[in-house]
Amino acid sequence: MTKRLPVPAAVRVDGWGWRYAGRSDWAARDVSLRIEPGERVLLLGASGAGKSTLLAGLAGVLGGDDDGEFEGSLTVAGRPPAEARGSAGLLLQDPEAQVILARVGDDVAFACENLGVPREEIWRRVRQALTEVGLAVPLDRSTAELSGGQKQRLALAGLLAMRPGLLLLDEPTANLDPEGVLEVRDAVRAALDATGATLVVVEHRVAVWRDLVTRVVVLDADGGVLADGPPEVVLNDAAGELRHAGVWLPDTPVPVAPVVTEGAPLLTARSLVFGRGPAVTRGRRRGRRPRPVAADAVGFPVDADLREGSALALIGRNGAGKSTLALTLGGLLPAVDGSLAAEPALANGLPSDPGGWRSRELLTRIGSVFQNPEHQFIASTVRDELAAGPRALGLSGTEVEARVDDLLVRLALDGVAAANPFTLSGGQKRRLSVGTALATRPRLLVLDEPTFGQDARTWQGLVGLISELRRDGHAVVAATHDAEFVSAVGASSLRLDAAEVSA
Predict the structure, then answer these.
(1) 265-502 — its CATH code?
(2) Strand partners, 12
(3) What confidence category does residue 280 fall into, taking pLDDT thresholds of 50, 70 and 90?
Protein backbone atom coordinates (compact mmCIF):
# COMPACT_ATOMS: atom_id res chain seq x y z
CA MET A 1 0.00 0.00 0.00
CA THR A 2 1.33 3.46 -0.94
CA LYS A 3 1.75 5.75 2.03
CA ARG A 4 -0.45 8.83 1.96
CA LEU A 5 1.59 11.74 3.24
CA PRO A 6 -0.13 14.91 4.45
CA VAL A 7 -0.05 18.07 2.41
CA PRO A 8 1.85 20.67 4.45
CA ALA A 9 -0.60 23.45 5.23
CA ALA A 10 -0.02 27.16 4.80
CA VAL A 11 -1.39 29.50 7.48
CA ARG A 12 -2.62 33.06 6.93
CA VAL A 13 -3.56 35.33 9.85
CA ASP A 14 -4.71 38.88 9.00
CA GLY A 15 -5.48 41.34 11.80
CA TRP A 16 -7.11 38.54 13.74
CA GLY A 17 -8.44 38.71 17.28
CA TRP A 18 -10.87 36.84 19.54
CA ARG A 19 -12.89 37.94 22.57
CA TYR A 20 -14.74 35.40 24.69
CA ALA A 21 -18.42 36.02 25.41
CA GLY A 22 -18.91 37.92 28.65
CA ARG A 23 -15.38 39.39 28.68
CA SER A 24 -14.43 42.98 27.91
CA ASP A 25 -10.79 42.20 27.09
CA TRP A 26 -9.52 40.39 24.00
CA ALA A 27 -7.80 37.04 24.41
CA ALA A 28 -5.78 37.85 21.28
CA ARG A 29 -5.87 40.89 19.02
CA ASP A 30 -4.42 42.36 15.83
CA VAL A 31 -2.33 39.29 14.99
CA SER A 32 -0.97 39.06 11.44
CA LEU A 33 1.21 36.15 10.27
CA ARG A 34 2.19 34.21 7.18
CA ILE A 35 3.40 30.66 7.80
CA GLU A 36 4.54 28.78 4.70
CA PRO A 37 4.02 25.03 4.16
CA GLY A 38 6.58 22.98 6.09
CA GLU A 39 7.73 25.78 8.39
CA ARG A 40 8.40 24.94 12.03
CA VAL A 41 7.31 27.80 14.27
CA LEU A 42 7.81 28.27 18.01
CA LEU A 43 5.07 30.58 19.33
CA LEU A 44 6.09 32.51 22.46
CA GLY A 45 4.58 35.21 24.63
CA ALA A 46 3.51 36.12 28.15
CA SER A 47 0.88 34.08 29.98
CA GLY A 48 -2.46 35.35 28.68
CA ALA A 49 -1.05 36.82 25.45
CA GLY A 50 -3.39 34.67 23.33
CA LYS A 51 -1.14 31.80 22.21
CA SER A 52 -3.62 29.03 23.04
CA THR A 53 -6.47 31.09 21.61
CA LEU A 54 -4.65 31.47 18.30
CA LEU A 55 -4.00 27.71 18.10
CA ALA A 56 -7.67 26.99 18.83
CA GLY A 57 -8.64 29.44 16.11
CA LEU A 58 -6.36 27.74 13.58
CA ALA A 59 -7.86 24.38 14.54
CA GLY A 60 -11.40 25.72 14.04
CA VAL A 61 -12.58 24.88 17.57
CA LEU A 62 -13.24 28.31 19.10
CA GLY A 63 -16.99 28.02 18.61
CA GLY A 64 -19.65 30.28 17.17
CA ASP A 65 -21.23 33.63 17.95
CA ASP A 66 -22.51 32.43 21.32
CA ASP A 67 -18.96 31.65 22.44
CA GLY A 68 -17.36 34.93 21.45
CA GLU A 69 -16.58 37.37 18.65
CA PHE A 70 -13.67 37.72 16.26
CA GLU A 71 -12.06 40.31 14.04
CA GLY A 72 -9.85 39.83 11.00
CA SER A 73 -9.44 36.47 9.28
CA LEU A 74 -7.72 33.07 9.52
CA THR A 75 -7.12 30.51 6.80
CA VAL A 76 -5.50 27.07 6.84
CA ALA A 77 -4.56 25.54 3.50
CA GLY A 78 -6.47 28.37 1.83
CA ARG A 79 -9.75 27.72 3.66
CA PRO A 80 -11.42 28.90 6.87
CA PRO A 81 -10.25 26.60 9.69
CA ALA A 82 -13.74 25.13 10.25
CA GLU A 83 -13.72 23.94 6.63
CA ALA A 84 -10.18 22.56 6.85
CA ARG A 85 -10.70 20.19 9.79
CA GLY A 86 -8.61 17.10 9.27
CA SER A 87 -5.85 19.24 7.79
CA ALA A 88 -4.93 20.46 11.29
CA GLY A 89 -4.34 18.47 14.46
CA LEU A 90 -4.46 20.27 17.83
CA LEU A 91 -2.90 19.09 21.09
CA LEU A 92 -4.80 20.91 23.82
CA GLN A 93 -3.13 22.47 26.84
CA ASP A 94 -5.26 20.16 29.00
CA PRO A 95 -4.67 16.63 27.63
CA GLU A 96 -7.45 15.17 29.77
CA ALA A 97 -9.98 17.19 27.76
CA GLN A 98 -8.75 15.35 24.66
CA VAL A 99 -9.30 11.80 25.94
CA ILE A 100 -12.36 10.42 24.15
CA LEU A 101 -12.50 6.64 24.43
CA ALA A 102 -12.06 4.19 27.29
CA ARG A 103 -9.07 2.23 25.92
CA VAL A 104 -5.69 3.54 24.84
CA GLY A 105 -5.63 1.91 21.41
CA ASP A 106 -9.15 3.02 20.54
CA ASP A 107 -8.40 6.58 21.62
CA VAL A 108 -5.33 6.84 19.39
CA ALA A 109 -7.28 5.29 16.50
CA PHE A 110 -10.27 7.62 16.82
CA ALA A 111 -9.11 10.43 14.52
CA CYS A 112 -7.82 8.00 11.88
CA GLU A 113 -11.21 6.25 11.81
CA ASN A 114 -12.96 9.56 11.30
CA LEU A 115 -10.61 10.37 8.43
CA GLY A 116 -11.40 7.05 6.70
CA VAL A 117 -7.94 5.53 6.99
CA PRO A 118 -8.03 1.79 6.08
CA ARG A 119 -8.34 -0.47 9.14
CA GLU A 120 -5.05 -2.31 8.68
CA GLU A 121 -3.23 1.00 8.27
CA ILE A 122 -4.91 2.47 11.37
CA TRP A 123 -3.51 -0.12 13.77
CA ARG A 124 -0.04 0.08 12.26
CA ARG A 125 -0.13 3.83 12.85
CA VAL A 126 -1.50 3.42 16.39
CA ARG A 127 1.34 1.13 17.47
CA GLN A 128 3.96 3.29 15.77
CA ALA A 129 2.65 6.51 17.34
CA LEU A 130 2.55 5.03 20.86
CA THR A 131 6.13 3.84 20.43
CA GLU A 132 7.25 7.24 19.15
CA VAL A 133 5.85 9.12 22.16
CA GLY A 134 7.16 6.57 24.66
CA LEU A 135 3.78 5.41 26.00
CA ALA A 136 4.54 1.74 26.64
CA VAL A 137 1.16 0.46 27.80
CA PRO A 138 -1.16 -2.24 26.38
CA LEU A 139 -3.67 -1.14 23.76
CA ASP A 140 -6.49 -2.20 26.04
CA ARG A 141 -5.25 -0.18 29.05
CA SER A 142 -7.98 2.03 30.47
CA THR A 143 -7.37 5.70 29.65
CA ALA A 144 -8.79 6.57 33.07
CA GLU A 145 -5.81 4.82 34.71
CA LEU A 146 -3.22 7.02 33.01
CA SER A 147 -1.43 9.85 34.79
CA GLY A 148 -1.64 13.42 33.51
CA GLY A 149 1.72 13.12 31.74
CA GLN A 150 0.73 9.81 30.17
CA LYS A 151 -2.49 11.38 28.89
CA GLN A 152 -0.36 14.10 27.31
CA ARG A 153 1.61 11.42 25.44
CA LEU A 154 -1.66 9.68 24.50
CA ALA A 155 -3.10 12.85 22.99
CA LEU A 156 0.07 13.47 20.99
CA ALA A 157 0.05 9.88 19.73
CA GLY A 158 -3.48 10.43 18.40
CA LEU A 159 -2.32 13.49 16.47
CA LEU A 160 0.77 11.81 15.03
CA ALA A 161 -1.34 8.85 13.91
CA MET A 162 -3.74 11.06 11.93
CA ARG A 163 -0.82 12.75 10.10
CA PRO A 164 -2.23 16.27 9.71
CA GLY A 165 -0.72 18.83 7.37
CA LEU A 166 -0.61 21.32 10.26
CA LEU A 167 0.49 20.18 13.72
CA LEU A 168 -0.62 22.57 16.50
CA LEU A 169 0.93 21.74 19.87
CA ASP A 170 -0.02 23.66 23.01
CA GLU A 171 2.69 23.12 25.66
CA PRO A 172 3.18 19.44 24.73
CA THR A 173 5.91 18.81 27.32
CA ALA A 174 4.55 20.81 30.27
CA ASN A 175 3.49 17.82 32.40
CA LEU A 176 6.28 15.45 31.36
CA ASP A 177 9.32 14.20 33.23
CA PRO A 178 12.73 15.24 31.78
CA GLU A 179 13.15 11.97 29.88
CA GLY A 180 9.62 12.29 28.50
CA VAL A 181 10.30 15.83 27.30
CA LEU A 182 13.12 14.61 25.08
CA GLU A 183 11.12 11.60 23.87
CA VAL A 184 8.18 13.78 22.83
CA ARG A 185 10.41 16.39 21.20
CA ASP A 186 12.19 13.67 19.23
CA ALA A 187 8.85 12.07 18.26
CA VAL A 188 7.65 15.39 16.85
CA ARG A 189 10.94 15.83 14.98
CA ALA A 190 10.65 12.35 13.44
CA ALA A 191 7.05 12.98 12.38
CA LEU A 192 7.95 16.28 10.75
CA ASP A 193 10.96 14.77 8.98
CA ALA A 194 8.79 11.93 7.66
CA THR A 195 5.77 13.98 6.56
CA GLY A 196 6.97 17.54 5.99
CA ALA A 197 4.00 18.88 7.97
CA THR A 198 3.83 22.47 9.17
CA LEU A 199 4.38 22.95 12.91
CA VAL A 200 3.24 25.62 15.35
CA VAL A 201 4.25 24.79 18.93
CA VAL A 202 3.50 26.88 22.02
CA GLU A 203 5.93 26.68 24.94
CA HIS A 204 7.16 29.10 27.58
CA ARG A 205 10.67 27.64 27.71
CA VAL A 206 12.75 28.01 24.59
CA ALA A 207 15.58 25.52 25.11
CA VAL A 208 13.68 22.30 24.29
CA TRP A 209 12.52 23.42 20.82
CA ARG A 210 15.28 25.83 19.83
CA ASP A 211 17.14 23.40 17.57
CA LEU A 212 13.99 21.94 15.98
CA VAL A 213 12.16 25.08 14.85
CA THR A 214 13.05 27.32 11.93
CA ARG A 215 11.22 30.41 13.16
CA VAL A 216 10.19 32.12 16.40
CA VAL A 217 7.09 34.31 16.69
CA VAL A 218 6.40 36.24 19.89
CA LEU A 219 2.90 37.58 20.61
CA ASP A 220 2.61 40.88 22.44
CA ALA A 221 0.32 40.80 25.48
CA ASP A 222 -1.11 44.15 24.31
CA GLY A 223 -1.90 42.80 20.85
CA GLY A 224 0.01 42.14 17.65
CA VAL A 225 3.37 40.47 17.13
CA LEU A 226 6.34 41.53 19.24
CA ALA A 227 9.05 39.68 17.29
CA ASP A 228 9.24 37.34 14.31
CA GLY A 229 12.22 35.73 12.61
CA PRO A 230 14.85 32.98 12.69
CA PRO A 231 15.48 31.63 16.22
CA GLU A 232 19.00 32.99 16.62
CA VAL A 233 18.05 36.44 15.35
CA VAL A 234 14.94 36.80 17.54
CA LEU A 235 16.48 35.30 20.68
CA ASN A 236 19.64 37.39 20.43
CA ASP A 237 18.51 40.72 18.98
CA ALA A 238 15.24 40.97 20.95
CA ALA A 239 16.44 39.37 24.20
CA GLY A 240 15.63 42.42 26.31
CA GLU A 241 12.09 42.72 24.95
CA LEU A 242 11.53 38.99 25.35
CA ARG A 243 12.60 39.03 29.00
CA HIS A 244 10.26 41.94 29.64
CA ALA A 245 7.46 39.92 28.02
CA GLY A 246 8.19 36.99 30.33
CA VAL A 247 9.73 34.66 27.74
CA TRP A 248 11.91 31.91 29.26
CA LEU A 249 15.31 32.38 27.66
CA PRO A 250 18.01 29.73 28.27
CA ASP A 251 19.95 32.03 30.63
CA THR A 252 16.95 33.15 32.70
CA PRO A 253 18.22 33.33 36.31
CA VAL A 254 16.67 31.19 39.06
CA PRO A 255 16.00 32.95 42.39
CA VAL A 256 18.09 31.98 45.40
CA ALA A 257 16.24 29.62 47.73
CA PRO A 258 14.99 31.12 51.01
CA VAL A 259 16.77 30.35 54.27
CA VAL A 260 14.10 28.93 56.57
CA THR A 261 14.28 27.53 60.08
CA GLU A 262 11.76 24.71 60.28
CA GLY A 263 9.42 24.56 63.26
CA ALA A 264 6.97 22.13 64.82
CA PRO A 265 5.96 18.91 63.03
CA LEU A 266 2.71 19.13 61.05
CA LEU A 267 2.20 15.83 59.20
CA THR A 268 3.98 12.49 59.54
CA ALA A 269 3.90 9.54 57.13
CA ARG A 270 5.21 6.16 58.25
CA SER A 271 5.44 3.24 55.81
CA LEU A 272 2.63 4.95 53.93
CA VAL A 273 1.27 2.93 51.01
CA PHE A 274 -0.88 5.06 48.73
CA GLY A 275 -3.22 4.02 45.93
CA ARG A 276 -5.04 5.05 42.79
CA GLY A 277 -8.68 6.02 42.54
CA PRO A 278 -10.86 9.09 41.90
CA ALA A 279 -10.16 11.55 44.71
CA VAL A 280 -13.00 14.03 44.26
CA THR A 281 -15.84 14.72 41.87
CA ARG A 282 -15.44 17.62 39.48
CA GLY A 283 -16.69 20.94 40.80
CA ARG A 284 -17.33 19.50 44.26
CA ARG A 285 -18.86 21.91 46.72
CA ARG A 286 -16.52 23.10 49.41
CA GLY A 287 -18.86 22.07 52.22
CA ARG A 288 -18.98 18.35 51.35
CA ARG A 289 -16.46 15.58 51.58
CA PRO A 290 -15.83 13.10 48.73
CA ARG A 291 -16.80 9.51 49.43
CA PRO A 292 -13.78 7.24 50.17
CA VAL A 293 -12.98 4.81 47.36
CA ALA A 294 -11.11 1.52 47.06
CA ALA A 295 -7.61 1.92 45.68
CA ASP A 296 -4.84 -0.22 44.25
CA ALA A 297 -1.42 0.19 45.83
CA VAL A 298 1.15 2.09 43.77
CA GLY A 299 4.83 2.79 44.37
CA PHE A 300 6.72 1.98 47.55
CA PRO A 301 6.03 2.75 51.21
CA VAL A 302 6.80 6.38 51.98
CA ASP A 303 8.32 7.88 55.13
CA ALA A 304 8.15 11.66 55.37
CA ASP A 305 8.10 14.39 58.01
CA LEU A 306 6.50 17.73 57.13
CA ARG A 307 7.29 20.54 59.54
CA GLU A 308 6.44 24.23 59.73
CA GLY A 309 8.40 26.01 56.99
CA SER A 310 9.36 22.80 55.17
CA ALA A 311 9.10 22.21 51.43
CA LEU A 312 8.96 18.75 49.85
CA ALA A 313 9.02 18.07 46.09
CA LEU A 314 7.52 14.81 44.80
CA ILE A 315 9.52 13.94 41.69
CA GLY A 316 9.79 10.98 39.31
CA ARG A 317 8.63 9.71 35.95
CA ASN A 318 5.06 10.03 34.70
CA GLY A 319 2.85 7.35 36.22
CA ALA A 320 5.03 6.87 39.31
CA GLY A 321 2.21 8.06 41.59
CA LYS A 322 3.14 11.67 42.41
CA SER A 323 -0.41 13.01 42.04
CA THR A 324 -1.84 10.05 43.96
CA LEU A 325 0.57 10.60 46.84
CA ALA A 326 -0.21 14.34 46.84
CA LEU A 327 -3.94 13.62 47.14
CA THR A 328 -3.25 11.17 49.97
CA LEU A 329 -1.11 13.67 51.89
CA GLY A 330 -3.87 16.23 51.34
CA GLY A 331 -6.44 14.01 53.04
CA LEU A 332 -8.41 13.47 49.80
CA LEU A 333 -7.53 9.80 49.25
CA PRO A 334 -7.43 7.09 51.93
CA ALA A 335 -4.09 5.41 52.63
CA VAL A 336 -3.87 1.79 51.53
CA ASP A 337 -1.55 0.86 54.40
CA GLY A 338 0.81 2.43 56.92
CA SER A 339 -0.02 5.61 58.77
CA LEU A 340 -0.57 9.28 58.02
CA ALA A 341 -0.93 11.42 61.12
CA ALA A 342 -1.54 15.13 61.57
CA GLU A 343 0.41 16.41 64.54
CA PRO A 344 -1.22 18.74 67.11
CA ALA A 345 0.14 21.90 65.43
CA LEU A 346 -1.87 20.98 62.30
CA ALA A 347 -4.81 19.01 63.70
CA ASN A 348 -5.59 21.71 66.29
CA GLY A 349 -8.06 19.57 68.20
CA LEU A 350 -9.20 17.31 65.35
CA PRO A 351 -8.51 13.55 65.07
CA SER A 352 -5.04 12.82 63.68
CA ASP A 353 -6.23 11.23 60.40
CA PRO A 354 -6.74 14.05 57.86
CA GLY A 355 -8.73 11.66 55.68
CA GLY A 356 -11.59 11.98 58.15
CA TRP A 357 -11.72 15.78 58.22
CA ARG A 358 -14.61 17.71 56.66
CA SER A 359 -13.96 20.17 53.84
CA ARG A 360 -14.50 23.15 56.15
CA GLU A 361 -11.96 21.67 58.57
CA LEU A 362 -9.43 21.25 55.77
CA LEU A 363 -9.71 24.86 54.61
CA THR A 364 -7.29 26.36 57.14
CA ARG A 365 -5.24 23.18 57.65
CA ILE A 366 -4.52 21.59 54.25
CA GLY A 367 -5.10 23.30 50.91
CA SER A 368 -4.86 21.14 47.77
CA VAL A 369 -4.31 22.26 44.18
CA PHE A 370 -5.23 19.60 41.62
CA GLN A 371 -3.25 18.80 38.48
CA ASN A 372 -6.20 20.01 36.40
CA PRO A 373 -7.24 23.43 37.76
CA GLU A 374 -10.70 23.28 36.16
CA HIS A 375 -11.64 20.40 38.46
CA GLN A 376 -11.86 22.76 41.43
CA PHE A 377 -13.56 25.82 39.94
CA ILE A 378 -17.06 26.48 41.31
CA ALA A 379 -17.75 30.19 40.69
CA SER A 380 -18.63 32.24 37.61
CA THR A 381 -15.95 34.92 38.08
CA VAL A 382 -12.31 34.92 39.11
CA ARG A 383 -13.07 37.23 42.05
CA ASP A 384 -15.84 34.99 43.37
CA GLU A 385 -13.63 31.93 42.94
CA LEU A 386 -10.99 33.44 45.20
CA ALA A 387 -13.65 34.57 47.68
CA ALA A 388 -15.42 31.19 48.01
CA GLY A 389 -13.06 29.71 50.61
CA PRO A 390 -12.85 32.77 52.89
CA ARG A 391 -16.65 33.12 52.73
CA ALA A 392 -17.04 29.46 53.74
CA LEU A 393 -14.94 30.28 56.82
CA GLY A 394 -17.42 33.01 57.76
CA LEU A 395 -14.92 35.87 57.44
CA SER A 396 -16.21 39.44 57.28
CA GLY A 397 -16.84 41.02 53.92
CA THR A 398 -13.99 43.46 54.51
CA GLU A 399 -11.50 40.65 55.25
CA VAL A 400 -12.66 38.60 52.26
CA GLU A 401 -12.28 41.59 49.94
CA ALA A 402 -8.82 42.39 51.30
CA ARG A 403 -7.57 38.83 50.79
CA VAL A 404 -9.03 38.62 47.29
CA ASP A 405 -7.64 41.99 46.17
CA ASP A 406 -4.18 41.05 47.43
CA LEU A 407 -4.20 37.71 45.60
CA LEU A 408 -5.49 39.23 42.37
CA VAL A 409 -2.48 41.56 42.27
CA ARG A 410 0.09 39.03 43.51
CA LEU A 411 -1.04 36.43 40.96
CA ALA A 412 -1.36 38.92 38.05
CA LEU A 413 -5.09 38.21 37.76
CA ASP A 414 -6.40 41.72 38.53
CA GLY A 415 -7.06 42.36 34.84
CA VAL A 416 -9.38 39.34 34.58
CA ALA A 417 -11.15 39.58 37.97
CA ALA A 418 -14.59 39.69 36.32
CA ALA A 419 -13.87 36.91 33.80
CA ASN A 420 -15.27 33.40 33.95
CA PRO A 421 -12.47 31.09 35.19
CA PHE A 422 -13.05 28.69 32.29
CA THR A 423 -12.18 31.39 29.73
CA LEU A 424 -8.71 32.04 31.17
CA SER A 425 -5.47 30.87 29.63
CA GLY A 426 -3.89 27.72 31.02
CA GLY A 427 -1.33 29.68 33.01
CA GLN A 428 -3.99 31.98 34.44
CA LYS A 429 -6.13 29.00 35.45
CA ARG A 430 -3.17 27.47 37.26
CA ARG A 431 -2.47 30.70 39.18
CA LEU A 432 -6.15 30.98 40.07
CA SER A 433 -6.24 27.43 41.40
CA VAL A 434 -3.21 28.17 43.58
CA GLY A 435 -4.92 31.36 44.73
CA THR A 436 -8.08 29.54 45.82
CA ALA A 437 -5.93 27.43 48.17
CA LEU A 438 -3.92 30.41 49.44
CA ALA A 439 -7.07 32.42 50.17
CA THR A 440 -7.86 30.37 53.31
CA ARG A 441 -4.20 30.46 54.47
CA PRO A 442 -3.79 26.73 55.22
CA ARG A 443 -0.87 25.51 57.34
CA LEU A 444 0.01 22.89 54.69
CA LEU A 445 -0.26 23.51 50.94
CA VAL A 446 -0.27 20.51 48.56
CA LEU A 447 0.35 21.51 44.92
CA ASP A 448 0.25 19.41 41.76
CA GLU A 449 2.36 20.92 38.95
CA PRO A 450 2.12 24.46 40.39
CA THR A 451 4.20 26.14 37.66
CA PHE A 452 2.40 24.67 34.64
CA GLY A 453 1.77 27.27 31.91
CA GLN A 454 3.76 30.09 33.52
CA ASP A 455 5.97 32.59 31.77
CA ALA A 456 9.18 33.68 33.48
CA ARG A 457 7.56 36.59 35.33
CA THR A 458 4.49 34.75 36.64
CA TRP A 459 6.75 31.79 37.52
CA GLN A 460 8.89 34.06 39.67
CA GLY A 461 5.75 35.49 41.25
CA LEU A 462 4.60 32.01 42.30
CA VAL A 463 8.07 31.14 43.58
CA GLY A 464 8.09 34.35 45.63
CA LEU A 465 4.69 33.58 47.15
CA ILE A 466 5.69 30.04 48.12
CA SER A 467 8.99 31.23 49.58
CA GLU A 468 7.07 33.73 51.71
CA LEU A 469 4.76 30.96 52.90
CA ARG A 470 7.77 28.95 54.03
CA ARG A 471 9.21 31.90 55.94
CA ASP A 472 5.81 32.41 57.61
CA GLY A 473 5.81 28.80 58.85
CA HIS A 474 3.57 27.14 56.26
CA ALA A 475 4.64 23.77 54.83
CA VAL A 476 4.54 23.03 51.10
CA VAL A 477 4.35 19.76 49.16
CA ALA A 478 4.60 19.94 45.36
CA ALA A 479 4.35 17.20 42.74
CA THR A 480 6.48 18.63 39.96
CA HIS A 481 8.85 18.07 37.04
CA ASP A 482 10.19 21.64 37.31
CA ALA A 483 13.76 21.32 38.61
CA GLU A 484 14.22 25.11 38.70
CA PHE A 485 11.14 25.44 40.91
CA VAL A 486 12.48 22.80 43.33
CA SER A 487 15.78 24.69 43.56
CA ALA A 488 14.22 28.15 43.86
CA VAL A 489 11.91 27.27 46.79
CA GLY A 490 14.64 25.21 48.51
CA ALA A 491 12.61 21.98 48.57
CA SER A 492 13.95 18.58 49.53
CA SER A 493 13.07 15.86 47.02
CA LEU A 494 11.26 12.56 47.33
CA ARG A 495 11.71 10.46 44.17
CA LEU A 496 8.96 7.91 43.59
CA ASP A 497 10.48 5.82 40.82
CA ALA A 498 13.49 4.64 42.84
CA ALA A 499 13.69 1.31 44.65
CA GLU A 500 12.89 3.08 47.91
CA VAL A 501 11.50 6.48 48.73
CA SER A 502 12.00 8.50 51.87
CA ALA A 503 12.44 12.12 52.91
Answers:
(1) 3.40.50.300
(2) 34, 75
(3) very low
